[in-house]
Amino acid sequence: MSLPKIITRSASSSSSAPKVDVSPSSTDLAAERENGRKLILGLLTELVTDSSSLSIDIEVGERTTVYHVGCKKECIGQILGSKGKNIGAIRTLISSISARKGFRGIVEVPYFSD
User: Cβ neighbours of residue 37 under 8 Å, at least 6 residues apart?
Assistant: First the structure.
């Protein structure tokens, strides 16, 4: 088994190198947004007792994607979890995954007033 090679460059040589734009294309971002929607739907399906009422709508901005969770009023407690731990964990996952893909991901849950 060979060890990976470590390449070091001096500061003067890296500044003369041409810069390459590695931003993802819009089709790649659309696929990543859909993957995020599927991930949220899969996680929430396992959390709630009545998964037939779940829906995830996507609102796309220039650099931000908002995932709107739709559910029945009875399921909101299961989605939020104790002290918001469930939804906090899902938001953290989506935020980290989407940041790695080059956009901001936000998960919004409905508010039901009494």
Answer: 56, 58, 67
**CA torsion, points 111, 39, 99, 20, in degrees to nearest 10?**
-140
- Is this model's pTM higher than 0.70 or not? yes
pLDDT in tens, 9-52: 555 545 555 554 445 667 788 899 999 999 999 999 999 998 89
Short-list 77, 95, 97, CA closest to 86? 77
Could you tell me how many residues make up the chain?
114
Sign (positive/negative) of CA torsion 95, 28, 71, 42?
negative
Neighbour-count burial of 57, counting CB atoms closer than 10 A to its CB (0-12 exposed, 13-18 middle, 19+ buried) = exposed
CB 79 within 8 A of CB 48: yes
- CA–CA distance, 107 with 53 (Å, rounded to integer): 17
